[in-house]
């Protein structure tokens, strides 16, 4: 198949722009509360009523008229007991000289303008109809007026926001048990190479286990996608055509292997034959230069290099932002953070270096150290790191003490 070895490599920024411009945002769909977690909200959520919806006590104690307790102690007549959940309409009014026992969250009776906390009261032996108040209160103490937290119609959550646990609580509190969320991309993962054997097998002489397929599936799922592992395709045009054709039915197809310059690197040719428009085939990134990106209709195709470390980097830098954009994230890329290098980074200038690294908070800030690696085939290097340290394309050496950009990976706190 014809090759074009002189195609210019795009910069990482240019390539990411091409990827994101080609990436559609999936249509919104409805989700129930537990499934909405981790998705992107696609509608504005407003308060359905005032919160609190009635004047309520914030403490266990006594609903009182504050003017009665200007100079404690004072004995008050007990009107009634008001547990949380009582209908505010049926409450006995508090008149001067009286008090009702009230629980946290219970409605405040008419006439009361403060709550005396229970610790500031004493029972009167043998007389449950009275109570002794031992401290002063001011009007408004220990209570919340209707609407003090939120007004009906207030916007509580904006569209575009990721739904985490606090957002789930807001939705539940407002009775929104079904909400509009961004779609979850369906991602097919295909590993290519004659040398590949399934992970559960003992590879024959010359073979290796397929680690990229499970790697890419796990990364795509962690990004929020649902995945379909298509397994292994041989370096054979007919087999590739059949399996790639299958993968093109999903929102994205993530391939690994077969995108370099070797005789058996057939992927780009097969993609073209299947009508995939190739948008670029090279990026000035290390590792990961032979990264092929294309689309057919609304389906994106990521042809990742076969080397496992390259695969990891290409997914993180290009595929993950695309999947996040599909899901509706307004800023789908990871935001780099600055960290101080604790060991030098060396590289041959020309390509932006994405170094597997360990980041940790130390003293006042973030430190980062590249992990030892023998190169892009060193699959164990990815597991040694928790971050990618980015060295600009024009840098040859970044000394210890330099500040550089770092991408913290999903589970960096646990690794
Ligand atoms: P390729 O991009 O097909 O030339 O592959 C580059 C290197 O990555 C070769 O050493 C392959 O054996 C290795 N490789 C390719 N695919 C996988 C895979 N799915 N799992 C682990 N290593 C792979
Ligand atoms: Mg190969």
Structure commentary:
This protein has eight helices and 28 strands. It has a six-stranded mixed beta sheet with strand order 7-4-6-5-9-8, with no helix packed on it. The two termini are 43 Å apart. The protein has 415 residues and is α/β, with parallel strands linked by helices. It is elongated and about 95 Å long. 19% of the residues lie in helices and 30% in strands. The site of magnesium ion (MG) has 5 residues, from loops.
Short description:
The protein is an alpha/beta fold and 415 residues long. It has helices spanning 12-22, 33-36, 165-173, 212-223, 237-247, 267-273, 308-327, 379-384, and strands at residues 29-32, 45-46, 56-57, 61-64, 74-82, 98-102, 114-117, 121-123, 130-133, 143-144, 155-157, 178-181, 186-192, 196-197, 208-209, 226-233, 252-256, 277-280, 285-286, 292-296, 299-304, 337-341, 345-346, 352-362, 365-370, 387-391, 397-398, 403-408. 19% of the residues lie in helices and 30% in strands.
Measured by DSSP, the beta-strand proportion falls in 25-35%
Shape by Cα distribution: elongated
Helix content: 10-25%
**Rounded mean pLDDT score:** 96
Structural class: alpha/beta
Largest β-sheet summary: 6 strands, mixed
- Unreliable sequence segments: 1-5
Distinct small-molecule ligands in the complex:
adenosine monophosphate, magnesium ion
Total helical elements: 8
The rounded distance between the terminal residues' Cα atoms is: 43 Å
Rg, Cα atoms, Å: 31 Å
Side-by-side strand order of the widest sheet? 7-4-6-5-9-8
Say how many strands there are. 28
